[in-house]
Specification:
heterotrimer, A alpha+beta (357), B alpha+beta (346), C alpha+beta (331), A: 357 residues, alpha+beta, Aminopeptidase, Elongation Factor Tu (Ef-tu), domain 3, 11-stranded mixed beta sheet, 6-stranded antiparallel beta barrel, 8 helices, 17 strands, C: 331 residues, 2 domains, 9-stranded mixed beta sheet
Chain lengths: 357, 346, 331
Amino acid sequence: MERIYELAKQLTALPGVSGDEQRALGRVQELLGGYFDETFLTPVSSFLGIRRSKNPSAGTVLLDAHLDTVGFIVTAVCDGGFLKVAPIGRIAEKNLSAAEVWIYGEKTIPGVFAAKPPHLQSPGESEKKMSLSDFAIDTGYTRETLETLVRVGTYVGFKAEAELLNDHIAVSPSFDDRLCAAAHLRALELLGDEDVGLHIAFQFSAREEQGYKGAMTTAYRADPDMAIVMDVGHAYVPGAPEKRKTAVAGKGCLLSYAPQTSRRLTVWAERVAEEEGIPVQPIAEPGRTGTNSNAVQTTRGGIPVCLLSVPLKNMHTANEVADLRDARAAADLVAALLRRAAKEQEGLFRHGTASLL
Amino acid sequence: MEPQAFFEKLKAYCAVPGPSGMEDAIRERILADIRPSGATYEVDPLGNLLVFKRGRERRPYKLVVAAHMDEVGFLVTAVTDEGLLCFDAVGGVDRRVVSGRRVQFCKDGRTGVVASKSIHIQTPDEFGKCEPIADMRIDIGETDREGAQALVHIGDCAVFRPNYAEFGEGLIKSKAIDDRFGCAVLTDLINSDLAYDTYFAFDTCEEIGCDGAKEVCHRLRPDVAVILESTTAGDVCDAPEGARACELRKGAVLSHMDGGTVYDKDLLAFALKTAEEEKIPCQLKNIVAGGNEARAYQTGGTGAHVLAISAPTRYLHSACCVAAKEDLLAVGRLTRAILERSLPLC
Amino acid sequence: MLTLIRQFTSAFSVSGWERPLAEQIRKTLAPVADEITTDPLGNLLVLRKGKDASRKLMIASHMDEIGFVVTAVDDAGFVHVSNVGGIHAVASAFQRVRFRNGTNGVIVPESGTKPADLTAKKLVVDVGASDRRSAERRGIRVGELCAVVPMLQRLSGTRYAAKAFDDRIGCVVSAYTALHAGTPACDTYFCFTVQEEVGCRGALPAAFRIAPDCAIALDVTPADDCGVKQPVTRLGAGAAIKVKDASVLCAPVVVDRMTELAKARKIPYQYEVLTAGGTDTSAMQMAGAGCAAGCISIPTRYIHSPVETVDLRDLRACADLLTACVEEGMA
């Protein structure tokens, strides 16, 4: 089994709906601690690890992937042991009937999204727009017992496991963004003991699906000179607009040209990929990238960001499908960028030099 | 600077392509103008240009005057089999000012045309409608994917074509008056004798969310920020009085509140008083809409007192912005007058 | 507490001009404050030193209220306005308003506006002027602010209605706690913030300045339980511990700690999951390197109307819970 899948499988098995990432942090610390010289857990439920260069005055590169996943939050505990929920992150209602979930209450219990039996439906109902407020989660408990386990504000996440569809295509919930975290970690493994002449910080950041707050605050703390943010991107599927044909699963990781990423780093990364024979697909995003890139880039006095993405299908569902070759390309590219940054982007690492201010 | 020289410089600034995230060329042009002034400067990692100019006296607080270097533009998102370019706007651009325009690529100055179906082959349903920008295509004269890809890379940027010219009586028209005009006022100030120590910021990425200002604010931690901007003038044909925001030929625009900021009441009163004393025409913006970098400066770091002085400009974010020379000069004079004084800070 | 309610609800404090209320609060808290700071935006930061000087708790309630800003005065003397914050047009129509300088007026829909078409844009203010100049003589100029005239009405029992309980009532709870709580567990900043109604702009630089370890906002939350099967909160059911609103997912450590304190001190509480709305909580969570942020919400009916209604018992519960947080600490 491919190493990157092994890492992703471990990470996707962790809980961590946006807002409830704390639940995963203990295990994150266990799994990731060994990669770093120093680790921190932040007040905004993020993990920060730092791998020190021997040169104490070296610059710092920050790697970012987000820890949180989409999910739900309980808004009411109802008769019959049902739960009403609100979404955390954007979720397509059409995939919810009979979907399985974990309910992270006093103890973690399974649940199933109730599906309306045919005889209760009005004619043509299956064609109508669905709204989350029409759904409820069946827990199988009586209301009385359920109230001792679950409260308003309890988090709920998709219940499914990662599995391989063939030797390079995998499916799992929370590939967004655990697959990218796996790619960053894989890049660190590829470096082995090599000192790249830079401190390498990795943040597994919380609350991406809710305002990028984990990335913003953790990057502030890490205070890096440049950053490589990695998130999932929409892979082309039939019916998507023409411009999305630039992001095809299996053809390499995506590299974003955007006003909210550093053009200098993006051009450089594309050149590095070409020289190292790593498949990348350039994409262009004129507005918000919908990732942590902007939050990191505008932290402190401005941190140049390079944004990589792994193409993903069925984003924000229990069945996110990715091509592991793209994740591997991302890991290879991150490793290559880390190896070459100190020399080729020397101008960015000027910490401590005098300033007119 | 003499008005004529000022407008020559403005013309040159407006001509430089510089959409958000690609401000290198305009920054170099500005740097070339201010190097002889002896002011110290720094370019931050994301391309913001910060300048410090000594004045005759010190100030007990840190004041920055800011303008943004970037302009709205376009980003190539894909190349089609037919050799056309899919693109999207960088910054807030009304789709209707894009259709049918010519654009210039930043990289090599190549011209492209925002293609549109001629009226004869439109269906009745399509008459009078403008498709979303995502459905428009730029034609660079290539007929297949390979040909287009040899010339243009995904992520390449274009802007409206430079077209600065005198216009009517005392007006000018050009792309990118927003905010190259502010940049021109700043370089004038830097090249002149100042009463007090002053910081100047030429910001990047305003059009996509004031990103540059956020970074500058953090680096500089100003106590006061004066923002020079262009603001939408609604004195167009048939516009009802009272809903025009501001009008050409009525002087510098002062804002009390807009979509992003409630301005410092003391500074606003001080600016109004200064304008009155110096007999500089000014007007108050009479709608609450839009926004500028004041929002970033007011809430960045530990917060700052903010004042915005704007030039009324018609057809902002289009290929042809129209502004009155007298208003632009009024903004320059008012800014200078305010910098000459000591501010009432609470 | 009633005295504070009367004082705070009567001050003028539309977003952008919170100075009168800030003065009022400053005077009220001066006797217990170790330090009082006003920042460039007008946020008032009142420090009470605690036993542990190495940790900081920030408490934020916003001083500003929604209102209107003058955009033009027409020849007939009508004053055209734009909303400041989220105006409920139906609730605002046909109310008495007062300007910053004390000028009185009434706010009405433009003639001929059908009830269904009523939006904030259709509202104008009549200050009794017969023409533009006469309005200007009353000090009405572009940029002037006005708000509905203060009103405080006791309903039966422990319930009160007022305009701008959002968020004077939060200021009351915070100020009351600052006055009456025992020595804080750690350095505690009672912050009275500006410009929340126009996008939580005040709390961000205030939080950046303080760099707290933990932050608690105090704000109102809907308790519109009339005819609603699952209201967000219920009036009279106690302090609402916020888990989520549209702007923030509160730190679970804060939610759990508040729950623990409420149980220990037998304070009635309920949980709040709000799918709309935003509060200073969000700004405090993301300032600088971030902090563990939460919010005590005060159940309130008819928010952003001139008859916002609260229950004193909930206020006491909120003050008791905040006092517990201050005295026993959040860690």
